[in-house]
Amino acid sequence: MQVIQAIKQNVSIRNLVLATSLFIIAIVLGTLIGQNAALEVLRRLGGLVERFARTDNLSLLLFLLIFINNGVKALAIIFLGILLGIPPILFIGLNGFIVGSVGSALESAMGWKYVMASVVPHGVIEVPMLLLATALGLTVGMESFKWLTRRESRVKLQLSECLKIYLKWILPGLAVAAVIEAFITDLLIGLIIVG
To answer: In whole angstroms, what is the distance from residue 164 CA to residue 68 CA?
Structure first.
């Protein structure tokens, strides 16, 4: 209940719907036009993954990389929202395109069960956290726009409130998603491949 109240106070539903809509449109575009590029990237990453696989404690290293990467990105899109909300829009669009193109490439190569096992378990937590961060960034962007047009603005207060939501909800959510992605996803993929 506290989550919903905090979100309602600092994120307009319009910004959350906008972020979600952009993400879905970008996924569709990535699925339709990005598959070939994604296949090439996956081929190139194959060698890198093999080198990492030789490292001890790969799951822990993977967890740290995923968590730090997503945590920094989420914080950045909130604070970069001050640039009239443009960076959050670009971020969520690019991420949707990547999800669509890589998902489509994996589906072609490995099948839809593989894609579901590798994306859905952590994605059901990670994606909403990134959409929330994007919506917060858009809210900061709206306050920044008010300031530029010399209307009453609460940019500093909005950034402060967004940081509280980030620390209390987004960062822990991203940590849980990273744990799932680093420690559980491989097990699920193994079950799909064996089954």
So the answer is: 18
Q: Where are the alpha helices (DSSP H) in 111-170?
A: 112-148, 155-165
Q: Which two tokens stand for residue 56?
A: 């001890």
Domain segments of the chain as ranges: 12-194
- What number of CA atoms fall less than 13 Å from residue 60's CA on the CB side? 3
CB neighbour list of residue 134: distance below 8 Å, 6 or more residues apart: 15, 19, 23, 77, 88, 89, 91, 92
- The amino acid occupying position 60 is L
Per-residue pLDDT reduced to its tens digit, 54-112: 455 688 899 999 999 999 999 999 999 999 999 999 999 999 999 998 888 888 888 88
